Amino acid sequence: MYKHPDHSSASSSDIKNRCGTDIKLVLRKYDDPASVSKLAAAQMEIDKTQDIMQENIIAMQENLIKVERVDEKGEKFKNTAEQFKDNAHELERIMYWRNMKMNIIIGTIASVIIGYFILPFI
Question: Are 82 and 76 in contact (CB under 8 A)?
Answer without folding.
Answer: no
